[in-house]
Amino acid sequence: MINEILIVDDNADIRLLISDILKNKGFNVRIAANFDQALAEINKKLPDVAVVDVKLDKGDNDGIDLLTHIKKINDDVPVIMISGHANVKMAVDSLKLGAFEFMQKPFSSERLLNFINRAVENIELKKEKHVLESKLFQSYDMVGKSQAIEKIKNLIAKLANTESRVFISGPAGSGKELVARQIHKKSHRSTKPFVVVNGALLDPEKYELELFGSENLDGSINYGFFEKAKDGTLLIDEVSEIPLETQAKILRVL
Question: Which residues form the Response regulatory domain (predicted)?
C-alpha cells in the first residue's frame, strides 16, 4: 500500500525538499502553502499522514488550527508538526493536542523518514487493533436469558449511554472485562481505544509513570495509559494492587 502524505508549509523550498525526500521513498505527496489550501486538499481526501508547519503565513489560521481540525475528522491520522522557531512549550502544546511527533527545523532526511515510517507503522497497528477488537466483540457477546443476565444487560445499556465512571466488582473469572467491553461496545466511544491495564502487573517503581505518562527534558512525551485511552475506555483491573496514594491520584483524574 502506497501511503499518501500531505505537506503543509508556507516555505516553498521546505515543501519541495520534504516532497522530494518522500517521493524518492515511494510515497504519494500532496502539498499546501497555507491553512485554506490544506483544507481544500483534506476535503478532497484525508491523507494517511500530515506534516504541518506550526506557523503559516496568510490567513487567520495556523498549523495548530489545522492539527485540531484533522484530529476532529479522524483522530487516527498521525500529524507531524514542524517549526523553525520551536520551543518546549510549542512542542508540548502540539503533543497535547494530538500531534504524533514534533520536529525542529532544520532536520535531516533520516529523521524525517524515521518519523514518517513510525507514523505509517502506527496506522497499520491501529487498523489491526480495530479489526481484532471487532472480532473480539463479535465473539464475546453476552449470552443467556436468565433474569440475572437480563438485569446485567439492561444495566450495561444504561451505563453505555452515560459518561459515568464505573466500578465493576466480582471474583476472578466472573466476566468483569466482558462487562467492561460490552459497555464500551454499546457506547459512542466504541470506535475509540479500549485499553486494559492490570494493576498487579505494573512495575511497582513506575506506577504513576505508566498510568499518567511523563514529559522529558527535550519536550517529548511518554504517554501513559490514560492518554492512550483518550476518548475511549480505560479498564484498570486489579486496582486494589495499586498503592493507595496512586489510587487517590487516579480518583482525582477521574
Answer: 4-120
For the domain spanning 128-253, the CATH number is 3.40.50.300
Helix (H), strand (E) at residue 5: strand 4-8
- Fold match between domain 4-126 and domain 128-253: yes
Q: Are strands 221-222 and 214-215 parallel, antiparallel or unpaired?
A: antiparallel
Cα 117 to Cα 121: distance, rounded to the nearest angstrom: 6
Contacts of residue 169, defined as CB under 8 A and 6 or more positions apart, other chains included, come to: 176
The structural domains of the chain, with segments of one domain joined by +, span 4-126, 128-253
Among 129, 119, 128, which Cα is nearest to 25's?
119
Query: 43-97 pLDDT, tens per residue?
Result: 899 999 999 999 987 767 889 999 999 988 888 899 999 998 878 888 888 999 9
**Residue of 166, 170, 178, 174 lying closest to 139 (CA atoms):** 178
Pairing of β 4-8 and β 49-53: parallel
What nine digits make up the cell of 55?
506557523
CATH number of 4-126: 3.40.50.2300
Residues 100-127 pLDDT 10s: 999 999 999 999 999 999 999 988 888 7
